[in-house]
Design brief:
- This protein is α/β, with parallel strands linked by helices.
- 29% of the residues lie in helices and 19% in strands.
- The strands form six sheets. Strands 21-22-23-24-27-26-25 form a seven-stranded mixed barrel, surrounded by four helices. Strands 7-6-3-4-5-20 form a six-stranded mixed sheet.
- It binds alpha-methylisocitric acid and iron/sulfur cluster.
């Protein structure tokens, strides 16, 4: 029986366990990436492990999230990360060089390799035929130290692409269609593998748009084959030597099949406030808009920008619309400057932003009150834009540009003939903003620059004999990490200061939570389905840890967040009978006796609701290795015990 591409790469990297679906496997990691908002913690954790130099083939630290230096904090963090990189063998992509996923695709991604990154959109690398997975900072620290990365051996879903996109219909519409069909929970425990004739019609940046936003399916990752188109892209990046052809076997067996005829797709938008709330432009109608933001790791490639420039050429942005554009990397921005497209954008009235995450993470460009914002990004969770009642629609760059001119949601197919957009034969290559580390023999001469914003991470304790704590908060379904630990320009600078950032924990849901949790000393959070979807930020586990949260009891978890809870030593519990969720109220005293003993005996735990006087069952769906981590009080304690 033939193998899927996913199985081929995973089994070539297997260092622990067996390739049995649903079981935990450990894989060797060839490359890691971090960004600044998760990076400070990841590097503090790496330092705590005491490994002198990274053991991966390539590790890169990017500065792209916290670039609004509104006070000393972010600049301190950048200098800290830069100095750690220099000393410990990591390449450092300086602020201004671009968004981690875009730059990694351009300069470092290699087909067939494994990559983990402390950012949930790391699967962008799947556009180059990598197994690229988003993870918590601690997992990335362990991988840098040469440790394996553990995942559940995934099911593999085949997405068979046929046909060819119609003019002005975009790669973004492909992933929106997948989200429409599978939903934000549809990818859990799965890798989405793209195959079929239609694959050949998509360039590497288009493939990367699709794998990038595959994160919104909750999937472990998404992957495209590595083919002639991949070779041409790598050649144009001066990296043809990194090319290897890779594909699934013709008789590979998949766990599920989705068929998409590219020719039948139409322009679409994900409506507020979920990436799977997808409608066609026709269904939404010519809605009046206030803002358009083009950029983010989903849609900021040169090809995207050239399409936008073509649409804007000789026109003016509608007087009621603010248009911002953030090209994804220095390479993209500079090529636009050299070929004149940047001037076209400026002429049309676009507000050009630096090559960074910017508005995507709420770093500026919050829309007006109740404002309707079209964004080429990947997430439209409530409040993420920085405006609580902002209405964010996720769309393709083509649709965004056409609408910015018209002032209303506009089908880009009304633009008429589309010229053929081709990737350049040679990209503009200048890696002068990527600082290499010093040689190993010189590492002692590098001083680590630790500003006052950098505080040690909270210490977790070994699992208690009994957890006896009140429910400090009860929340509903699809709680995102943006609810648990919001981002934005005010809060992001506190990413290396857990005591301070914890003040904002769950503030979107309940402003009193911080105070209440601290007063209670220890507590349990109760939630619904798909708890912790979205970002990989381990702060969504570290802040609750700091606030004394001992367990999180929900209907189901998102993958990265559950791993982050275990890494932090917080017990992740799932209702065996979902109806028990309705019987618990905030304030109820919950009691779990002999926790470790119960865990050793199986995967079900008995919980008492002392306030209401009933007992119910909760599942702990973790591996044997993760149980050991829970007994030890998290991954760091576990790693120390076992090294
Ligand atoms: C995001 O898109 O939510 C982020 C900001 O890139 C996060 C990482 C973070 O919270 O720092 C992610 O996707 O993992
Ligand atoms: Fe940055 Fe947005 Fe991409 Fe996250 S999703 S890495 S914030 S551009």
């Amino acid at each position: 029986m033939g193998l899927t591409l996913t199985e081929k790469i995973l089994s070539a990297h297997l260092v622990d366990g067996e390739m049995v679906k649903g079981q935990e496997i450990g894989i060797r990691i060839d490359q890691t990436l971090t960004q600044d908002a998760t990076g400070t913690m990841a590097y503090l954790e790496f330092e705590a492990m005491g490994v002198p130099r990274v053991k991966t083939e390539r590790s890169v630290a990017y500065i792209d999230h916290n670039t609004l230096q509104n006070g000393f904090e972010n600049a301190d963090d950048h200098r800290f990360i830069g100095s750690v990189c220099k000393k410990h063998g990591i390449y450092f992509s300086r602020p201004g060089n671009g968004i981690c996923h875009q730059v990694h695709l351009e300069r470092f991604g290699v087909p067939g390799k494994t990559l983990i990154g402390s950012d949930s959109h790391t699967p962008t690398g799947g556009g180059l035929g990598m197994i690229a997975i988003g993870a918590g900072g601690m997992d990335v620290a362990v991988a840098m130290g040469g440790g394996a990365y553990y995942i559940t051996c995934p099911q593999v879903v085949k997405v068979e692409l046929t046909g060819k996109l119609q003019p002005w219909v975009a790669a973004k519409d492909v992933i929106l269609e997948v989200l429409r069909r599978l939903s934000v929970k549809g990818g859990v425990g799965k890798v989405i593998e793209y195959v079929g004739e239609g694959v050949k019609t998509l360039s590497v940046p288009e493939r990367a748009t699709i794998t990038n936003m595959g994160a919104e399916l909750g999937a472990t990752t998404s992957i495209f084959p590595s083919d002639e188109i991949t070779r041409q892209f790598l050649k144009a990046q001066g990296r043809e030597q990194d090319y290897t052809p890779l594909a699934a076997d013709a008789d590979a067996q998949y766990d599920a099949v989705v068929e998409i005829n590219l020719s039948e797709l139409v322009p679409m938008a994900a409506c507020p406030h979920s990436p799977d709330n997808v409608k066609t432009v026709e269904e939404i109608g010519p809605m009046k808009i206030d803002q358009v933001c083009i950029g983010s790791c989903t849609n900021s490639s040169l090809m995207d920008m050239m399409k936008v420039a073509h649409i804007l050429k000789g026109k003016t942005v509608h007087p009621d619309v603010s248009l911002s554009i953030a090209p994804g990397s220095k390479q993209v921005l500079n090529m636009l400057a050299k070929n004149g497209a940047l001037s076209v954008m400026i002429d049309a009235g676009a507000r050009i932003l630096e090559s960074a995450c910017g508005p995507c993470i709420g770093m500026g460009q919050s829309p007006n009150s109740g404002g309707i914002s079209l964004r080429t990004f990947n997430r439209n969770f409530e409040g993420r834009s920085g405006t609580k009642d902002g209405q964010v629609y996720l769309v393709s760059p083509e649709l965004a540009a056409a609408s910015a001119l018209a002032g209303v949601l506009t089908d880009p197919r009304t633009l008429g003939d589309m010229p053929e957009f081709k990737l350049p034969e040679v990209f503009d290559i200048n890696d002068n903003m990527i600082v290499p580390p010093v040689n190993e023999q010189d590492m002692d001469s590098v001083e680590i620059l630790r500003g006052p914003n950098i505080k040690p991470f909270p210490v977790s304790e070994p699992l208690a004999e009994t957890i006896d704590a009140p429910c400090s908060l009860k929340v509903g379904d699809n709680i995102t990490t943006d609810h648990i630990m919001p981002a934005g320009a005010k809060i992001l600078p506190l990413r290396s200061n857990i005591p301070e950032i914890s003040k904002h924990c769950f503030a979107v849901c309940d402003e009193e939570f911080y105070k209440r949790a601290l007063e209670l000393g220890k507590s349990i959070i109760v939630g619904g389905a798909n708890y912790g979807q979205g970002s990989s930020r381990e702060h969504a586990a570290l802040a609750p840890l700091y606030l004394g949260v001992k367990a999180v009891l929900v209907k189901s978890f998102a993958r990265i967040h559950m791993a982050n809870l275990v890494n932090a030593g917080i017990l992740p519990l799932m209702f065996e009978n979902e109806a028990d969720y309705d019987k618990i109220d905030q304030g109820d005293e919950l009691k779990i006796e002999h926790v470790a003993e119960q865990l050793r005996a199986g995967d079900t735990i008995e919980v008492q609701n002392a306030t209401k006087g009933f007992t119910f069952k909760a599942k702990v769906s973790v591996s044997a290795r993760q149980k050991e981590m829970l007994y030890a009080g998290g991954l760091l304690n576990y790693t120390k015990q076992n090294s």
